[in-house]
Amino acid sequence: MRILLAAALAATGLVVLQTPASASAKPPVVTRAALDPALVAGRGAAVDFAEQEAENATTNGTVIGPGRDAYTLPAEASGRKAVKLTPGQYVEFTLPKAANAINVRYSIPDAPGGGGITAPLDVAVNGHKRATMTLTSQYAWLYNQYPFSNDPNAGLLHPDWWITECSCVPNATTPAPEIAKPFRPNHFYDEQRLLLGRTYRAGDTVRLTVPAGSNAEWTVVDLLDSHLVGPPRVEVVAANVLAFGADPTGRRDSAGAIDKAIAFARRAHLKVYIPPGTYQVNRHIVVDDVTITGAGSWYTIIKGRQADLDTPAPDGSVHTGVGFYGKDASAGGSRNVHLSGFAIEGDVRERIDTDQVNGVGGAMSDSTVDGLYIRHTKVGMWFDGPMRNIKITNNVIVDQIADGLNFHTGVTGSVVSNNFFRNTGDDALAMWSDKTADAGNTFDHNTIQTPVLANGIAIYGGTDNTVSNNLIADPIREGSAIQAGSRFGAEPFAGKLRISGNTTVRAGTFELNWKIGLGAIWFYALEKDIDADIEVSGDHYLDSTYNAIMLVSEWSVKDQYAIPKVRFTDIRVDGTGTSVVSARVKGSASFENVDARNVGAVGVNNCGSFNFPPTGSEFSLTDLGGNDGGWLAPWMLPNTITCDDRPPVVPPPAPSPW
């Protein structure tokens, strides 16, 4: 019957490929940030791949997790679960739709002395081997205190800092405490892309197998993204870098050739085109008044080594590396720069904050950055203003040592929209109003997963900024999903701050120094009052590890700074380990149509600024109506002290449709 059917279809011009899925394969489970996509509809970036978590696939390995304790493999995995394989074991995914490329997020062990290892991973489709990926841990595995070390055997970087492991300052403690090594291992995961060479159908299977004899004791597979990559883009009327001597094999340095193409394109009023290939670039390409486009980020790859500088640069850099940079703002900055359709792959393996080894940097006004893939740089995009009117769209930024993107100092009238961030080593998205306010900017419809340190989105001061319709999942430590913070010397908040329509999931980390859990969203008055027109509306806080909402100040300044007025409207809270609201500061907030369920402890944990006056807490709450779920009981209003400094955590059930 099958032969007759195939023959009949062939007679009509339709060809059926006989590539049945494995009999044991599980049906595909497609997620977004390890959630049912229906729970986050309309939020986050619209991406061109299907995400499948390894724990939902077929495997003879071991599912690890769930777990949210920092410095563990499950905590840094998407959805806080992954699959651990030993040599000979596999995990098999069923494609949910046609695909010709995959991206694998994984972890393998570090070398005993640090520096990483490489190990193979076999890729088979429908039982036929297609390729062997060479995995690496050379860009993973950091240790110790900030700014971290690559050496697992190193002693404390800051023995004069208080650490929670001994509740002491080690070099001021007698007898000296024993600190286990490696100390605070973190940043375990990396990812790698692979073109499969042909297009496969929905229902076909992709099996990832650790071959026998692998030098990796174990391989953890977190997830697989499957892509249908279009053909390379061709620009005929352009300054083609090949004509200026660029080497698409990557054997020779192409930086000079790209510079020549840019200079010619500016004179001739043409675009610069970088066709398919891998181009070696080990320094900054300075861009101004130019359009540079590639054949697509899967085809055009700008790849470089981190290079030592002979002498430190004026900004303190001791290295340089691959990156596209506008001119410095002090030199007037750059304008009319348009970058699109290529990948930037760096070689950054340590965090040196003075180094300018970012994928895109400098100052670029009236510019666009679209469709780039950036990996293994320090920061994907770090802009030093003042500058204005830049649009950052449709980019993928992964595996960074520090931030994903930072608007630093006087960036105004700019938009970051529809970008995807995963495994950043600091804030995935930040506006830092250092010396000059960032103003009139919008972070909209971005997806952020597993920021290893700090926050998914952080707004440090500024005026009239907006954070809207983003999806933020699985922050790991020393931060959470969304923070508005008066810290790092930032200019004060002024004008309006609008935080609306965002979804957070599995957010709220444990703050080691304070020994408390943070909120999925938190306002932090460390250096100034947070006193502006602030409204949080339409957010969904799902499966928060501790609190959904936190307003806090540092103990040492608790009587100096306040958060006078924040409005929360039309919020859904589905699951908290502790409370809906934790107040640890003086000030006030109002709540309207804030609905909550599956709350682990008292709805409001109100400590105020910890003076406990007989008149009630220094923080007051206003009920504007419609707050369902019983979390905001009348007896709590306006400022009943309900302070439990460290309430027990009750893990909530998984989120479900409201």
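The above is record 1. Record 2 follows with the same two-line structure.
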Amino acid sequence: MMIQAITIHEKDDLAVALTDLQKGTEVTVNGTAITLQHTIHAKHKFAMKDFQAGEEVHMYNVTVGRAKEAIKAGGAVTTANLTHQSESFSAEDKSSEPFQWIAPDTSPWKDTTFMGYHRKDGQVGTANYWLVFPLVFCENRNIETIKKAFDKALGFEKQDPYVALVKNMVDRFEKNELGDGSSLDFKLETITPSRKARVFENIDGIRFLTHQGGCGGTRQDAETLCRLLSGYVNNPNVAGATVLSLGCQNAQVKMFTDALHSINPTIDKPIIIHDQQDTGREQELIKNSITETFMALVEANKQTRQPAPLSKLTIGLECGGSDGFSGISANPAIGYTSDLVVALGGKAILSEFPELCGVEQELINRMDTQELAVKFVDIMRRYEKAAVEAGSGFDMNPSPGNIKDGLITDAMKSAGAAKKGGTSPVRDILDYTEYANKPGLNLLCTPGNDVESTTGLAGSGANVILFTTGLGTPTGNPISPVLKLSSNSKLAAKMPDIIDIDTGKVITGEKTIEEMGSEILNYIIEVASGRKTAKAMDLEQFDFIPWKRGVSL
């Protein structure tokens, strides 16, 4: 018989319903029988005791809110009776005791390797992409022109089933067969038809980035964009890049090359740069860019996959479209995967600073040095201050979808989101666009916005990204495979085209967190070796949105 409800920590005074529970049902949690005062839907919470107005409530053994009014034991917890409240934190309160970590058993992967692309700087890519991007939005059309030429000629162009659908409708229209449309049943032949044979066997794709930055904003925005783009070029999944500049923009070529060499002073990847105002005719600019890029692809195609130790993995940890099960199944599962990767000598990057609200002190106590704690607190305080000055705040982070599916406060959401980072020591604190160089767990300042955050993870060196979701989101990335993990099996069945791994069996008790986390690592190895692909890559969900460092939660 399936367990009806649980507390996540034995000291919690809120319980989570694992299935729909009717009003009046007697539920036993941790040996305590409680009669439900309301119908509690799966993923939502109910009180384990009577609360008075103003009293703190707890989940994950941390404060996740404050009662706005009296709540009876067995009563539903909602936005009407619970408001955000989180625990305080301070770098000065960092524990003086060295953090003790018991690493997981990694013996099953002792001699395991993945087949990756070895770069001269020691990094190893899980893919081999060529990157084409502009330094300013004025060049976006030229980027798109180059994209059409390469995609069609090199076999990367995907035959679009929706074009066939429209042609079918046009044919029916011309034959006067549409009528009022009420009885039409147009079907797609296939969603992912096969492509032509690729010209370059060892090139996984050419990725074309466009954006709306590079000029017209602040100089700081241009500098941030250049640092982000340089991180993309330095990412081990990238073999080289073609860069277009207009010439007069804020994001100058020198600004970009300086940023690139600040990340990697010895970088020797081929980088082709063309400036339109120097070149003159647009036709000449595009012809030169295509010609030189093609010759560079010939060289990049000579690289082949070779065995690499798992210490060369850098996994990004992200969530989006979270629900009340995310912090119980998918997030702790990839948290265990993170611990395995760290124990094997690799890197893990946990992003989304607004979703660490309330667990800051726990993370501070896991940091290697006091200096890291000071940097972390400074970034968090400045970020929150900017949000408040803009009339917002971290407490406004949960989306309507989050709330509808059981994440009532930001502290509640954050306590579950932080589980993605596992239990290992925090080795480094990275501000946005800083590159991950230290093995172990890194904390990267990004907003909670899905695409802005995954964009930042790839720019900081993630060669695979794990993305948990309870509601479903198609988010992907141009250069780093984004593996989607559903928190519940219902979502995996409903949206199989975007979900790679279903962690719902943790909720039903069929699998443990450790078993699920181990399966995820094995899946990563297959993707990193090119033997499997991420659904987001299949769908060509190549999202790229730079964070302009304004207020984005």
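The longest helix spans residues 370-389.
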